[in-house]
Design a protein that fits this description.
By secondary structure, this protein is α/β, with parallel strands linked by helices. It contains 14 helices and seven strands. The protein has three domains: 123 residues, 3-Layer(aba) Sandwich (Glutaredoxin), CATH 3.40.30.10; 81 residues, Alpha Horseshoe (Serine Threonine Protein Phosphatase 5, Tetratricopeptide repeat), CATH 1.25.40; 85 residues, Tetratricopeptide repeat domain (Serine Threonine Protein Phosphatase 5, Tetratricopeptide repeat).
């Protein structure tokens, strides 16, 4: 945050090109902000080109307003060139963001706050239509998790849970984030929040299976030892199965599935179906969209119907 009156270098580039965002001035404030705010909320971003936090907040604010799909408008006012309105509103430091509804200020914040806070500000201002739906947020979080962006996924799931504390998909998704981060205890605590009757939900069942696989202690040294033992006797299904279990515990599902399929190709009913049961756990833990689930399931189907 910058206090007004500090150094003022060069002028900025023009404002963002968007149907929901425009540059405003003191002269056009009534027509840009006051009048439109009687129909829909209008957010005013008071900024200056010399303000570092303004440069950080601006793109975040613009992205969130665009994502709101027209539920709110954004007017950006450079206080170097237009100091009057900021002065009337008592703006003493920037960035300063003031929301107008029904022709008057309705809410505000100062400083370069996190993206999640910006989204919450807009959602509160514009109502449910001001942001993506829960289904859209869940899809966004799932994509982030698939890309191993655990932090982004966790932030979205947490945002959903702030509004819907019992959302099974968000609870399960956040549990997946903790599990991927190696925190089995917190992952389990989230699953425990889901009523037993709802734990068969696909998203919950996936985490429960992943937790079950991860519950088996496994270390890279054990994996190396089992690999050496298997190399000496490739037909040793018991060792191959132990290796698959160890790899599953380390979330190396692709390698684990390959070893289990090798057993099944040699003996479909080995050990009363233990290899097939373990493979099905991997499918559930990885989720139906995972490549290991799709490819290994095709190979298993081919074995079952050969």
């Amino acid at each position: 945050m910058h206090i007004l009156g500090q150094g003022k270098p060069a002028k900025p580039a023009a404002g963002a090109a968007s149907a929901h965002i425009k540059d405003g001035t003191d002269r056009t404030f009534v027509q840009d902000v006051i009048q439109p705010s009687r129909e829909q909320p209008v957010i005013v971003d008071f900024w200056a080109p010399w303000c570092g936090p303004c440069k950080a907040l601006g793109p975040v604010l613009e992205k969130a307003v665009d994502a709101a799909g027209g539920a709110v408008k954004l007017v950006k006012i450079n206080i170097d060139e237009n100091p009057a309105i900021a002065g009337q509103l008592g703006v003493r430091s920037i960035p300063a963001v003031v929301a107008f509804k029904d022709g008057r200020p309705a809410d505000a914040f100062m400083g370069a706050v996190p993206e999640s806070d910006v989204k919450a500000f807009i959602a509160k201002l514009g109502g449910p239509a001001a942001g993506p739906s829960t289904a859209e947020l869940l899809a966004e979080a799932e994509n982030a998790l698939d890309a191993d962006d655990i932090g982004a996924a966790a932030e979205i799931y947490a945002m959903i849970l702030q509004q819907e504390q019992d959302n099974i998909e968000a609870l399960s998704g956040l549990a997946h984030c903790y599990l991927k981060g190696g925190d089995q205890v917190r992952a389990q605590s989230l699953i425990d929040m889901i009523p037993p009757a709802n734990r068969s939900h696909p998203s919950a069942a996936s985490v429960i299976s992943a937790l079950a696989l991860a519950a088996r202690p496994a270390e890279p040294d054990e994996v190396r030892a089992l690999m050496s033992k298997l190399a000496a006797n490739p037909g040793d299904h018991a060792t191959r199965f132990d290796l698959a279990e160890a790899l599953s515990a380390l979330s190396r599902h692709d390698e684990a599935a390959e070893h289990l399929l090798t057993i099944l190709e040699a003996d479909l009913g080995w050990n009363e179906g233990a290899a097939r049961a373990q493979l099905l756990k991997i499918f559930e833990a990885a989720g139906p969209k995972a490549e290991v689930s799709k490819s290994a399931r095709r190979r298993l189907s081919a074995l079952l119907f050969r």
